[in-house]
Each structure stands twice: as C-alpha cells, then as structure tokens.
Amino acid sequence: xxxxxxxxxxxxxxxxxxxxxxxxxxxxxxxxxxxxxxxxxxxxxxxxxxxxxxxxxxxxxxxxxxxxxxxxxxxxxxxxxxxxxxxxxxxxxxxxxxxxxxxxxxxxxxxxxxxxxxxxxxxxxxxxxxxxxxxxxxxxxxxxxxxxxxxxxxxxxxxxxxxxxxxxxxxxxxxxxxxxxx
Length: 182
Hints:
The chain is mainly α. It is 70% helix and 0% strand.
C-alpha cells in the first residue's frame, strides 16, 4: 500500500498542534500507518517537523499567490486569502505554533510569507479600509489565530466546515474595518 506522504504530514500537523509532545508512535497511529513506515519517510521527529514546515510554507505560498493579495480592495483580498488557505489551515496552524519553537532561528520562507500578509493589512490601512490604531503585525497575528482556531473547531466537529470562511472573514474584517467615525 502506497503512503500518501502529504496526508501523513497533514495528520501529523493536526496532532502536533493539539499535542506538541506527541510521539512518533502516536503520529504513526493517527496516520493509520506503522511506526516503521513512518520512519522510512521521516528518520525522526526533526525530519518530520522539517517536512511539515516545508509543506506548510509551500502551500501557504501557493495560497497567497492564488489569492492575488495585491489586487483590488484589501478586504476582498483578505476574503480570497481565507478561501485559498482553508485547505492548508491545519498546516498554517502548525507553522504559527512551531515558529515559536525555532529558538531564535527564523525561517526565511516563513518570514517572507509573514511579510506579505502584513503588507496586505498595511495596504488596507493606507487605503482607508482598515483601522490604523491596530498595527499590521497584530492584524496578521489575528488572521493566523482565527485560521488555526477555526481549523481546530472544524476538526473537533464544533463548527461546520462550510462556515470556515464566513466566520473568519466576518470576525476579522468586522474588527479590522475602519468605521466612518475614525
């Protein structure tokens, strides 16, 4: 039986974002494969985490490109980005939490993508769409937090998958929109 490496990585990301101390045995069990099979694909936990990082960055970069974040109103671009990132939401949640474990070492790919999201919010502020009293870095972190939280809520069956995009966009943009009084 062929192992779907990307599916194993998605399962590992879902498990590790909820239980950072999960063992390779637990990852193998959650993925429906044996420990030996897991080790044939990933020599150890470090190799697994590196592969998760690479897949997550690759998929997030593809989502950013497909969302055309430099086009049109920033609010519309945020909605497109939410839609494009939905299939990789679990990986993005892993990247955000794993990024804090780099111990001073910063992944250049993650930094590059993070800068693009922050630039989207900055553009929205410069064009008067978004509040200027909230830094673009905070809006970016809020975006990541909502993506991760919604991915977990869907995974746990607490919210319907069909509501993923709506819930995130409404909460994030509802708080980020610049009101007439500002």
